[in-house]
Amino acid sequence: MSNLICVGAIAGSFGVRGEVRLKSFCAVPEEIEDYSPLSNEDGSQSYSLTITRSIKNGFAALLGGVETKEDADALKGLRLFARRDQLPQLPDDEYYHTDLMELEVYDTGGTLLGTVKSVQNHGASDLLEIHGPGLQSTVLLPFTLEAVPTVDLSQGRIIADPPDGLF
User: Fold this and answer.
1) CA–CA dist 40, 48 (Å, integer)
2) Is this structure's pTM higher than 0.90?
């Protein structure tokens, strides 16, 4: 499991005074500020974060070291990470998306179905994107208790009971 968890991303500049457009991936979006300072993916850069106001699809925020619109524009696409120990402890039936990545997915009979490549959410619930050598295309498995009764992070696997015809 990674020590860094992606909690947000920079969508570009906001205004001309060095503010950035911030997208928060936190369950309570404004809590991203509580995890400051945030870092880039490899941890080599650190940024203090202050939310200045809510805007459409996110927040306007100030990042430490970002003084101009050009500085803010240069950070577009930057994903922001918090240390795992800064984040709240999750209940037993909840997982950080990053912890599900690359887990092997087996059916209830023990047959390998594939590997989790991403976790997606299009509004209703999370979907696990499954890739595998025996699959002709990507399979989106609903991440519900019925379809995924067991997630075993210590063994690096998921036991799935997919709906009929999905695989």
Assistant:
1) 12
2) no
